[in-house]
Amino acid sequence: MPNNTILILIAVLIGGVVAAVAAYYIIRFMRGSIKMTLPQTGFNPGQNITGSFDLETKKAIEGNKLIVSLIGVQVTEYYEDGKKRTRKREIYRNEVLLEDAKTYPAGHTSTHQFEIDTPNTNAPEFMNSAIGKTLAGALQLLSDRRTRLKWRVEARLDAKGVDLATSKSVSLSV
Q1: Could you give the percent of the chain with pLDDT greater than 90?
Q2: How many domains does the chain have?
Q3: Cβ neighbours for 112, distance < 8 A, ≥ 6 positions apart
Q4: N or C: which end of the chain has fewer CB within 10 A?
């Protein structure tokens, strides 16, 4: 009987986690959406990323800020105790503020243009900065075939409650 109780408890916990994740995405969907367009997805050091996104609200939203970010994540795969593990660490973030705190009414639609810089790894002043040194260290680790950099552009309406966000993967030849 105790074995059945443990199995039932585990099933209830897993069901609760699945229900919570589903509820989060349903609430997010009911609040609105962001759809991003990027004319290109491959970039060189120091090149600007340009694009746009459409913001649509289904319910009134109290926004804290509307931002676009270029995010670099170092992904390392390794084996531990015979199992493949993945470790992710954000090593770069460049945010551009598009709008400060604002209330978006239900049914609001708008298109936002943006431009965000990629890191200019060829510039000496960048390589001498703290972020440049961090990126250089990460690039040295990239010689290990199990480590790679993943880049994405993210548009986010930071709001009270659940945020609206979307992202697109991009490639940078840093």
Answers
A1: 49
A2: 1
A3: 52, 53, 54, 55, 66, 98, 155
A4: N
Contact yes or no for 135/72 (Cβ under 8 A)? yes
Counting Cβ atoms within 10 Å, is residue 57 exposed (0-12), middle (13-18) or buried (19+)?
buried
Integer Cα distance of 91 and 81 in angstroms:
27
Q: Any idea what the CATH number is for the domain that residue 150 is in?
A: 2.60.40.640
Residue 109 lies in a domain: yes
User: Cα separation of 154 and 71, whole Å?
Assistant: 8
Q: Order across the sheet with 32-37: list the strands.
A: 32-37, 48-57, 109-117
- List, for residues 37-66, the tens digit of each pLDDT value: 999 999 998 899 999 999 999 999 999 999
Mean pLDDT over 137-147 rounds to 63
Tally of CB atoms within 10 A around 80: 7
In a domain, 16, yes or no: no
- As given in the structure block, the two tokens for residue 85 are 């593990």
The answer to whether residue 89 sits within a structural domain is: yes
